[in-house]
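Review the following:
>
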Amino acid sequence: MDTTPPPIDPRLEQARRLLDREDLGLAELADAVGLSATHLQRRFRQQFGLSPAEYRAQRRLSGLKAGLRAGHDVTRALYDAGYGSPSRVYEHGAARLGMAPQAYRRGGEGLELRWSLVPTALGQALVAVTERGVCAVLLGEDAGALEADLRAEFPRATLQRVDAGRDEFLAPRVRAVAEALSERAGAVPVELIGTAFQQRVWEALMRIPAGETRSYAELADSLGMPRGARAVARACAGNRVAVLVPCHRVIRGDGSLGGYRWGLPRKQALLDSERRGHDAAGKRSA
């Protein structure tokens, strides 16, 4: 059976492009694309994972961040992004999308991250934590490249490299991550830093049992978005917490691996290892 997601309805694409340019209400947007408001609301959420109002709010917030990064003063950045007043940032931006304002300042501004490198069964892992939990697990072979990746993810955060074994806060979290990557049991608190939709997808990933996989379409369907496979795939690609948020358990509908931020060989190795562990557990319980 062909599980390739159907093409996006051009009317939904038109609606999305209009929202990129204009601050339209649902009724105005529906009239512009020739759909009823109710139909547009439902279909837009199915396709993109957000309502039109939430999508526009997210675009506004992105515009605000871009203005601040460009060096514009706060007032100019607010109005250029389409906010009528500073309070509207919270009414229609951060609060409405469930965003933590501190975490969403451009480039991690205001965040304090401590990080360390640890050897694991999957190679080098860079583990970074906030005061609430692990916010990044980056995999690779080159320590310098991993550090550069972290700095690119959080260019304005305060980053402090520490010796994991000497830091009372970081040490147990690094050990827990290393154990998780080595497939030993253990809970690791994470802080998911992303949009409201990305967080929904990442939380759904964490509910997929080890040893099992889901297609992008199946994951989208479980979130109530039967046409949202592409949006789900983009959210998976934005995951920066390897293994703990198991985007490696999502594959294409035809059974092929799809993509993986840390390389397809690692994805295949993780899946093979989890399947072996799952099969062994099944034999022990038989």
User: Anything to note?
Assistant: Residues 1-5, 85-105 have pLDDT under 50 and may be disordered. The two ends are 33 Å apart (CA to CA). The chain is about 50% helix and 10% strand. Residues 128 and 243 are 14 Å apart (CA to CA).
